[in-house]
Amino acid sequence: MYGAVLDAEGSRIEVGEAAVICENAVLRGSAVASDQPVLVDDHVFVGPHATLLGCEVGRCAYVATTATVLQCARLGAGSVVAVGALVHARTVLPDEYFVPPHTVALDAPVRLLAPGDPGLAEAVGRVGFAQVAFGVDAEWTDRISRYEHIAEVRVAEFGAHADDEVLNLG
């Protein structure tokens, strides 16, 4: 739909038959840390303002409005990621699994944590997101160093397009 962003960034994006990618959804592949395509199977619904980053979405899955699925995660067939939910990096959802609204799903086997859960920060730290997404190996507790390195990786990735030309296909 209008306003959706599909950005392969050196990888690829595949969208299956009868899949719906709603307005302002973002699908972004990457090859920064490893080849992380976005693979959306048949009959998938990706809601408005949803974000899929380097992940796989099985057939007949439903990714609701503002839901996010991070790098190397896999959603099983018929799974649901409800409004505002987050499926963290490397998480594997079984077929027909339901992630409730505004919940964080992580690990394999999957476990669910509420936003206010006192163990959430530690659990997210164990995921190793900076390594998975950006190839940055930095301690979870050293946020300044980690984000500095992540910013450098992103600047280099996007800077590679500084000389891109807009083609007039009309």
TrEMBL record:
<keyword id="KW-0808">Transferase</keyword>
<dbReference type="InterPro" id="IPR050484">
    <property type="entry name" value="Transf_Hexapept/Carb_Anhydrase"/>
</dbReference>
<protein>
    <submittedName>
        <fullName>Acyltransferase</fullName>
    </submittedName>
</protein>
<dbReference type="InterPro" id="IPR011004">
    <property type="entry name" value="Trimer_LpxA-like_sf"/>
</dbReference>
<keyword id="KW-0012">Acyltransferase</keyword>
<dbReference type="GO" id="GO:0016746">
    <property type="term" value="F:acyltransferase activity"/>
</dbReference>
